[in-house]
């Protein structure tokens, strides 16, 4: 299996602002106020990595306005490198999510008109020295429009040429795509360029064309040369596939406050563990524990556990069956 040579990551994709209805448990329409946090799947993954002690840089664009500057300030707060975060003016806007902290019937309203991160270009990618990193991490959201898609595919090819690990979080968001068929074709193309592919059963089903064929497509990616495919099944745990075989793991039970942030936290815990020499099964369990911790906390980026917090959780919690 191709291994991570250094604990330094470049994460490509969306950064945005999350507005959480306050106090926690309140519906958006009944909120007395909103708490603002850094959001966006790629930015959240970068924070999750940084909280685990990894170095993480972001490759994206944000709008040249107050919301974009909020995101830049938040990246600085979390120690995320932003040398490759470009500003864009005009009608482009940084993404905004209005979210609830509710375990059931949780409303999440996303504003993605003329999304700034979709303005990422191949020129932005060509400015990156990929050899500085141990891995490039992409999210499937970055593939949803042609310009950003070309930039993302160029980044995957450049990272492979530099000899670093390529990682994909399928991260399928139907509202970003013109059609499911286009999403299947683009995500499958990108997955075939990656060493590690992570997604849930529905997302692998997207790659396959049918949800019942999701596990088969995960197996085929490994057979074609991917080092690892992590096939997540929600409450039923995960199947992790590699050339060495298949590993089945359960989930850590927790008192969830909300359903959001688990996937991003999993990716951070999982990749940071691999980069620091943990065996594959242990890395998956660390990712699963990080996911359980995040859904029990308010927010996404601020809820990401530190390495010490994750160690303490694992020491106090039995390994799930």
Task: Using brief descriptors, characterize the structure shown.
UDP-N-acetylmuramoyl-L-alanine:D-glutamate ligase, alpha/beta, four-stranded mixed beta sheet, nine-stranded mixed beta sheet, 10 helices
Question: How would you summarize the topology of this molecule?
Answer:
Layout: E1 8-12, E2 16-22, E3 33-39, H1 41-51, E4 55-63, H2 66-78, E5 81-88, E6 95-99, E7 108-111, H3 122-126, E8 135-139, H4 146-161, E9 165-169, H5 180-191, E10 196-200, H6 201-208, H7 214-223, E11 228-232, E12 238-242, E13 245-249, H8 262-275, H9 280-295, H10 307-316
Parallel strand pairs: 1-4, 1-8, 2-6, 4-5, 8-9, 9-10, 10-11
Antiparallel strand pairs: 2-3, 6-7, 11-12, 12-13
Helix pairs in contact: 1-8, 6-7, 8-9
Please tell me about this protein's structure.
This protein is an alpha/beta fold and 321 residues long. The chain has one domain (8-15, 41-63, 118-316): Ribokinase (UDP-N-acetylmuramoyl-L-alanine:D-glutamate ligase, 3-Layer(aba) Sandwich). Helix content is 36%, strand content 23%. It has helices spanning 41-51, 66-78, 122-126, 146-161, 180-191, 201-208, 214-223, 262-275, 280-295, 307-316; strands spanning 8-12, 16-22, 33-39, 55-63, 81-88, 95-99, 108-111, 135-139, 165-169, 196-200, 228-232, 238-242, 245-249. The two termini are 26 Å apart.
How would you summarize this macromolecular structure in one to three sentences?
The chain has helices at residues 41-51, 66-78, 122-126, 146-161, 180-191, 201-208, 214-223, 262-275, 280-295, 307-316, and strands spanning 8-12, 16-22, 33-39, 55-63, 81-88, 95-99, 108-111, 135-139, 165-169, 196-200, 228-232, 238-242, 245-249. With 321 residues, it is α/β, with parallel strands linked by helices.
């Amino acid at each position: 299996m191709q291994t991570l040579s250094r604990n330094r990551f470049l994460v490509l994709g969306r950064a945005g602002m999350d507005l959480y209805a306050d106090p926690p448990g309140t519906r958006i329409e009944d909120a007395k106020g909103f708490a603002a946090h850094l959001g966006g799947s790629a930015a959240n993954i970068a924070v999750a990595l940084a909280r685990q002690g990894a170095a993480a840089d972001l490759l994206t664009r944000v709008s040249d306005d107050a919301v974009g500057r909020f995101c830049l300030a938040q990246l600085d707060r979390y120690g995320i490198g932003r040398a490759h975060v470009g500003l864009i003016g005009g009608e482009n806007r940084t993404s905004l999510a209005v979210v609830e902290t509710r375990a059931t019937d949780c409303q999440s309203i996303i504003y993605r008109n003329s999304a700034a991160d979709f303005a990422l270009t191949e020129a932005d990618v060509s400015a990156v020295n990929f050899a500085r990193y141990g891995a490039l991490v992409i999210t499937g959201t970055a593939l949803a429009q042609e310009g950003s898609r070309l930039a993302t595919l160029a980044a995957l090819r450049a990272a492979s040429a530099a000899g670093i690990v390529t990682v994909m979080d399928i991260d399928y968001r139907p509202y970003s795509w013109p059609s499911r068929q286009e999403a299947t074709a683009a995500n499958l193309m990108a997955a075939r360029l990656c060493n590690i592919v992570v997604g849930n059963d529905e997302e692998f089903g997207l790659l396959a064309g049918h949800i019942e064929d999701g596990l088969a497509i995960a197996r085929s990616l490994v057979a074609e040369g991917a080092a690892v495919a992590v096939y997540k099944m929600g409450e039923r745990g995960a199947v992790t596939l590699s050339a060495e075989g298949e590993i089945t793991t359960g989930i850590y039970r927790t008192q969830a406050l909300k359903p959001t942030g688990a996937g991003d936290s999993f990716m951070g815990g999982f990749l940071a563990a691999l980069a620091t020499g943990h065996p594959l099964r242990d890395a998956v369990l660390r990712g699963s524990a990080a996911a359980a911790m995040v859904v029990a906390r308010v927010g996404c980026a601020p809820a990401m556990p530190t390495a010490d917090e994750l160690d303490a959780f694992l020491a106090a919690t039995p390994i799930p069956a």
